[in-house]
Fold:
Amino acid sequence: MNKKIGVKILGTGSYFPKKVLTNADLEKMVETSDEWITTRTGIRERHIAQNDEAASDLALKASEEALKAANLTADKIDLILVATITPDMFFPSTACMLQVKLGANNAAAFDLAAACSGFIYGIATAKGFIESGIYKNILLVGTETLSKITDWKDRNTCVLFGDGAGAMVLSASETNDDVLSVYLGADGSYADLLYMRGGGSLCPTTAESVAAGMHTIRMEGKEVFKAAVPKMALAAQKALELAGKKVSDVKLYIPHQANMRIIEAVAKKIDISMDSVFVNIHKTGNISSATTITALDEAIKSGRIQKGDLVELVAFGGGFTWGAAVIRI
Ligand code: ACO
Structure:
């Protein structure tokens, strides 16, 4: 019988655009206050991409760092998976744009859309491809330029989002099994609570659709909040069960960074101390598919977690989609 192929996480990387937009800056743009934003969300500042900086440019910088950490050259990658809701364009995929920028000439490439849960969906996809023996070295990226689909006149949403990218290299291994479990969920009946309607086949771009702001994010924040807490808690518990681990086995929980109050409510629901929860929302805002991987990269670089530690990533987003993964770094 063939030996089971395991997954080894070889390295991670991240990148944030240089420009920083603070809550004080936003006070000059819409009727809001630093006090409202920090108490309601925990966000103090976020990074914003330049006009000519696309999702693939951010992805490139994060990927270069991840490849360096993995000690692998781009030509060794045989699949590039990009999770994003802000692709460079509808097609070709951002993964293809990244492939050419990286010179990853031996890689297949495609994008994956699961909104803020995109990176967790990506881990599940990468795990499946590696365990089935189809691909050996996968570059998984979460990259977002949400500033480009934000309605900067809508105070309900424009204070929440930011830009950034994170990357992970996962590889086939006979000795490691670093992705212990992944749990995914979705419920499309909630599509009307968080969406960007314009530009697709349902509502093609017209002068009217642009005038109506349909090319920007719309969200019923309160309703999203209500759904996010139980679904993130459920996902966290299910992934632990699948991994055969207890809450106390996990060194660090890395939840999707959408709102500090959601993060605290989830921690309370699954009975974990905030001491074992990673938070960087104050300096990033919500960067959708890039939140968990950029946070993981920061936790590794800062020494908050060490080789061999168990980490759980948990996310929730538009769709709705949700998911969690228990990994060993
Ligand atoms: N500044 C000042 N006042 C504001 C602002 C602002 N930026 N935004 C809204 N308000 C006002 C509202 O107009 C409202 O005023 P009213 O009472 O006079 O009507 C009041 O503040 C309260 O608004 P709520 O929407 O009830 O505020 P809430 O406490 O729910 O916080 C928030 C809003 C931060 C959006 C929260 O609901 C939230 O974080 N929701 C979840 C978002 C999320 O998790 N998204 C995840 C996925 S994102 C993705 O997939 C791309």
User: Anything to note?
Assistant: Residues 32, 36-37, 40-41, 115-116, 155-156, 159, 194, 221-222, 224-225, 228, 258-259, 262, 286, 288, 317-318 surround acetyl coenzyme *A (CB under 6 Å). The mean pLDDT is 97. The two ends are 29 Å apart (CA to CA). DSSP finds eleven helices and 13 strands in the chain.
